[in-house]
Amino acid sequence: MKVVFVDGENVGLKVVEKIDSALSDKVLVFSKSASIEQHCDKALFQHFSNYPTGSNQADFLIIANLTKYLTVYDTKALSKAELVLYTNDQDLISAFEFQCEQHHIPANIVRTREASKVISLPVSKPTPLDPVEEKLFNALSQPRSLDPELQTELRLGRQTFTRAINSLLNANRIKRSDTNKKLWVQC
C-alpha cells in the first residue's frame, strides 16, 4: 500500500498533475485551490479543503491524517506501506518524519523545488575615508559620545561633523557601544 500526502498549498497544480499513482495507491491532496480540486476529481485523488484559512492549517490536517493512518493500521500492515510526502515546507517535513519515526515507518519526502543555491557575491573593499571621516573614525577607537565636545576637539564645523557621522554610519564603520547606547565606537 502506498499513501501519498500532497501539500497542494505548497507545491501547486503542476506538481499535483505530475503525480503518477497506481489504482491501489491512496493520494491525499490538501489544498483550497479550485483547479487542484478539479484535477483531483479527474485523477481520483482524495481532496481535502475543509480546514480553516491561515498559516500552516493544511499542514496540521496533513499531520492529523498521517496520525490517523499510523494509529488505525497495525504495525505489520504499516511495515508494508510506503508513506510519501510532496512538499517544500521544512517544518512540515520535520513533523512528518517525526511521526513516522515514532511508529518506525520510513518516510519518503519528495521536494519539488531544488534546494536554493547560495551565490556568493563579490565583497567590495571599503571605500577609503576622507580626512574628516578618518579623523572622526580614529577618535572613536574607544567608546565616546558624539557631542559638541568631540566636535570641538576635532575642530570640525557642525555640518561637517554631522556629515562625517552619517557617512560612517551608512558605511557601517561606527556603531553604538554594546555597554552604553549613548556612546559610539568603531565597528
Automatic annotation (TrEMBL):
<protein>
    <recommendedName>
        <fullName>PIN-like domain-containing protein</fullName>
    </recommendedName>
</protein>
